[in-house]
Design goal:
The chain has 279 residues and is α/β, with parallel strands linked by helices. The protein folds into two domains: 183 residues, 3-Layer(aba) Sandwich (Rossmann fold), CATH 3.40.50.1000; 71 residues, Trehalose-6-phosphate phosphatase related protein, domain 2 (Alpha-Beta Plaits, 2-Layer Sandwich). The protein has seven helices and 14 strands. Helix 6 links the parallel strand 10 and strand 11. Helix 1 crosses helix 7 and helix 5 crosses helix 6. It is globular, with a radius of gyration of 19 Å. The structure holds ligand L263DTV3. The site of the ligand O=P(O)(O)OC[C@H]1O[C@H](O[C@H]2O[C@H](CO)[C@@H](O)[C@H](O)[C@H]2O)[C@H](O)[C@@H](O)[C@@H]1O has 25 residues, from strand 7 and strand 9. Its cofactor is Mg(2+). It holds the Pfam family Trehalose_PPase.
Length: 279
Amino acid sequence: MTDSLQPDLPGPDAGSPASHRFALFLDFDGTLVDIAERPDAVVLDPATLDALVRLQHRLGGALAIVSGRNLATLDALFAPFRFDASGLHGAECRLGERTHFEHGVPTHFRRMVDDLKHRFGADTGLLVEDKGKAVSLHWRLAPERAEDALAAMTAIVADLGGAYRLQHGKAVAEIVPVGASKGVAISRFLAEPPYRDRCPVFIGDDLTDEHGFEVVNARGGLTIHVGAGPTRAQARLASPAEVRARIARWADGEPIGFVPAKVPASSTAATVPTTTELL
Ligand SMILES: O=P(O)(O)OC[C@H]1O[C@H](O[C@H]2O[C@H](CO)[C@@H](O)[C@H](O)[C@H]2O)[C@H](O)[C@@H](O)[C@@H]1O
């Protein structure tokens, strides 16, 4: 099957396949894998892993995972493969063998994480996820405690001073370095080969992905939101199962393409039309 080309997309080098016009960025939780009760309960099925490897090859290497997880966890989840990746909502970036860390880990941050673990470590409802340079407090197992958990994390961020920010997510509040965002991470990839000069495509499901959607929209790329709810993304897929099916088809050689929607610069998340048609 031949690749679909859009006339206003950047062109590939002479002789390279049309799929080399695209750079694909994929969120992990809620996009590639279904949401589970606990962070350690997610499963990436072998067929999707195989499809990702084939798709990465088809894209000439321009495929990166952009996640809130840290790089070490992502590598374990994708083992034995090691994809280009950004972790911790953009605070870590690895392209090939080069790894960039947005921040060090100050002692007072680690002390705070230890306190948090001490406070909630034995809790059966709230779960502390220690990610090294970031930390999450999950309430999926105790939704009735969402308000208290969020208040605790908000107070901690305030105590930390300006170097950290709160990242809201699905039944979770996370504390991440203030300069980190998925938009920053995607821009970083797009400055380097093989991502440079390509049309970015980003698929994600959560609030953190909106930063990435903003950057990709501004570069004339394609943004796809997984599931319902307000978003800046231009198109939707209903579920991670639909994402996995799409990835399998792209890996098998189906056209990677779309009819770009017009996204007015002044649009807010609630008003952006989601009319982009995936090919
Ligand atoms: O950017 P992502 O790859 O989507 O990562 C965002 C966060 O995902 C994980 O938490 C979420 O998924 C868990 C497993 O399905 C779920 O139990 C939890 O309620 C969700 O918030 C992960 O644990 C976080 O570290 C990521 O930042």
